[in-house]
Write a structure and sequence with these properties.
The chain is built from two helices and five strands. The chain is an alpha+beta fold and 92 residues long. It has a five-stranded mixed sheet with strand order 2-1-5-3-4, with helices on one face.
Length: 92
């Protein structure tokens, strides 16, 4: 099973600038484990030390927000696109 993971600019320092990574996994948690094995430190930019997603990081599996699915237990299948999207805040 191969999934494509879209790496946002703030996390590309871990991937030497690579913006798209392929991994083989069955759940989102396993995707993150594979990313961490390949790019040490990247998981810390995505998850809290408790293992939960950081508050201002959103992850979409085939366009669906994982917080409305099964969070890190969300299954992924062959060809799934995982997009890691940091929230952008602003205002006046």
């Amino acid at each position: 099973m191969s999934q494509r993971v879209v790496i946002p600019a703030p996390l590309r320092r871990f991937t030497a600038g690579t913006d798209l990574v392929e991994v083989d996994a069955t759940t989102l948690n396993e995707v993150l484990d594979k990313l961490e094995a390949k790019y040490p430190g990247i998981r810390g930019g995505i998850c809290e030390s408790s293992g939960s997603l950081r508050r201002f990081i959103n992850i979409y599996v085939d366009g669906e927000d994982v917080r409305f699915l099964n969070d890190l237990a969300t299954p992924v299948k062959d060809g799934t696109e995982v997009a890691i999207v940091p929230a952008i805040a602003g205002g006046l």
